[in-house]
Amino acid sequence: MQYNFPKNFMWGAATSAAQVEGGWNEGGRGPSIMDILGGSVDGSVHRHQTEKVMPDVYYPGHVASDFYHNFKEDIALMGQMGLKSYRMSISWSRVFPKGDEAVPNEEGLKFYDEVFEELSKYNIEPIVTILHYDAPLYLADHYGGWSNRKMIDFYINYCEVLFNRYKGKVKHWITFNEINCLLVPFGVITAGAMNMSYKSQDNTEQLRVQALHHQFVASAKAVALGHRIDNNNQIGCMIAYMCNYPLTCHPDDIRLAQKEDQIKNMLCGDVMIRGSYPVFARRYFKEKDIHIEMFPEDEEILKDGTVDFYSMSYYMTNCIGNDKSKELTAGNLVYGMKNPYLEATEWGWQIDPIGLRWVLNHVYDRYQIPIMIVENGMGTVDIVQDGRIHDVYRIDYLRQHIEQIGESIHDGVDVIAYTTWSALDLVSLSGGTMRKRYGFIYVDKDDEGNGDLKRIPKDSFYWYQKVIENNGEVLD
């Protein structure tokens, strides 16, 4: 079937500052909460949290893919690939090293000036995430992160600097990456509450939901501010879509899947798009004995700061049901039941392109605002053979998902962007490894930090180049 993508469709790729930039202590940058997530060097690299940067711990994000020193080469490669958009993030602690200063770090701002200038050379539209998990570590240590309402003012000060500095250079903004992850235990890290492990008994749903409310208010204030500063700004939310099918057609499984979808996926969208908490949240909070501390003005702030577009990450689907004997499978720090009809990656992520079409239709039926898919990709081990990477598996994954995006557009869904994860290889969030590779561009670095960081376009690079050239009409 031939797919008629819109002429101005924003074909692109994505990264985040904490996973790709490096230069963690250069240019006046302060440490972020992601800088104390280390990795082992004993051959079993995994994420583990330290209280501060320790001399005997390897931190993969400190150098990452070294975009900080190689951004001109990397953006030139993006231009060669023909990207129309680049979804990236700005490191808060590069702009405000501690996070609570009144005056920003000029050297950090100049770095992003140069990044945006390079993108402009190749007519690549930046889609900028304002906070992608990496709040300044100082705010965690001294304020307790997002469970403290003071974070709202610090964030808005940061946003005001960005909106004014990059007016005319950036039009598309995302306030918080995967904001709904605060509803799962790992979300305590995104809340900036780094005085505890996500497995800690202090990591309560009460703490995370309160932090989430503060992020809702901060996002709404940022939307209103961004529109005042530049009425051309388009500002969106970003949801990690956790799609769970009922394991069986038993009514209990159907209801369980519905409830999971409401709480994990729709609650955040409803607040940020409709401007108020959904009715189903009241019962959920009551049953969980969750009490959100709100200021009298919060309801009006949420109504006045609704977003312009919906963006999301989508990688896989899981099943959910009441039969606890069924086998579980992994999925980006969230576990679900195995689906017997799906294949999975070597990391257990179940590959489900048709699920993306279901999600797109489901979301658009509810909200009817433009949708961006800002993360979608396949993480796997890539082998260099004679200086080439033949990643046909990644091409197959992306082709199948793009086909379903085309079907969704044919269904009437207003999809305006597709930025794959990721533009180039980077440090994986869940494992802190380089061997789990997502990029179109190979980066020569291993899990222990060895390698010369040489960039090598993979076969998928040239395949995606052709997809963009013909606007998705030919996917072979």
TrEMBL record:
Keyword Membrane recorded: no
Source organism superkingdom: Bacteria
InterPro entries the UniProt entry points to: GH, Glyco_hydro_1
GO biological process, one term: carbohydrate catabolic process
GO molecular function, one term: beta-glucosidase activity
One Pfam family it belongs to: Glyco_hydro_1
Record flagged with keyword Protease: no
UniProt entry keywords in alphabetical sequence: Glycosidase, Hydrolase
GO cellular component, one term: cytosol
Family: Belongs to the glycosyl hydrolase 1 family.
Protein name per its UniProtKB record: Amygdalase
